[in-house]
Amino acid sequence: xxxxxxxxxxxxxxxxxxxxxxxxxxxxxxxxxxxxxxxxxxxxxxxxxxxxxxxxxxxxxxxxxxxxxxxxxxxxxxxxxxxxxxxxxxxxxxxxxxxxxxxxxxxxxxxxxxxxxxxxxxxxxxxxxxxxxxxxxxxxxxxxxxxxxxxxxxxxxxxxxxxxxxxxxxxxxxxxxxxxxxxxxxxxxxxxxxxxxxxxxxxxxxxxxxxxxxxxxxxxxxxxxxxxxxxxxxxxxxxxxxxxxxxxxxxxxxxxxxxxxxxxxxxxxxxxxxxxxxxxxxxxxxxxxxxxxxxxxxxxxxxxxxxxxxxxxxxxxxxxxxxxxxxxxxxx
Length: 332
Description:
Elements: E1 21-25, E2 49-50, E3 53-54, E4 59-60, E5 70-88, E6 99-105, E7 120-127, E8 133-137, E9 143-152, E10 156-157, E11 159-166, E12 178-179, E13 188-192, E14 216-217, E15 227-245, E16 256-263, E17 268-277, E18 283-287, E19 294-302, E20 306-307, E21 309-316, H1 318-331
Antiparallel strand pairs: 1-5, 2-3, 4-10, 5-8, 5-9, 5-11, 6-7, 6-9, 12-21, 13-15, 14-20, 15-18, 15-19, 15-21, 16-17, 16-19
């Protein structure tokens, strides 16, 4: 168990904004189970009381008077390989669980929680500290769709973070029309010039950004350079439509942007979208003339600023679809 480990740069597969859901809990008398997967960090107000007592930004069960434990099941918004779990007991001091364990399973389709079987251990029963992020690295090489948090015997947990690598189901992809950069399809940010105000990983997250803080924003540049992000595509493909979304960025949107493709197999680089003027708070969409197949794409913004989302719609190559299918089968 460690504090603030490096795996936190990976996406939180359970996050509500990524489609996660707390689909079952045996008890939530003091605080609702849905709080477990909120994206925002937990908060606390000393003088906030409800009809059940102090209001907590987390999941809290009643005090047990008989042997047993409490559990909550989370459907991952992004099914994938789990690399680490964080059981955050922020603000729970005299009421946190002394121990917790985490199991996971992989299900097909959209099962009812009572139909889930085949649970495998990710984190054995382990001690927790109160009011802290309890981090556990996971040694598993399988694709999971659900996780189950069990607390021993009862108490409160503010957040459950499930960090990992998304693995898409190829049956749900349309090879001729897919967002090649999307996190949920297997895309990943592999480099960037600056992330002062927001993570570049937000650019390829599912859905639309609700606020400026859900995008990527750099510090103000005081030199002649520009900022950039490098994205490893879900698999080899040819981009046909570029979407550059500056929604919510008004006085801080980039003035211009360009996109460059790269094929790691050959080392070739080529323009996908030339340097193009952008408008603030606008969802820009640019059709792209036929360009070569790429495995990576670099977004350059000029000179700096913020962007909500980057979408690179296009066609998976035969080899690209084969690679996604192979990875899915190896991890299922």
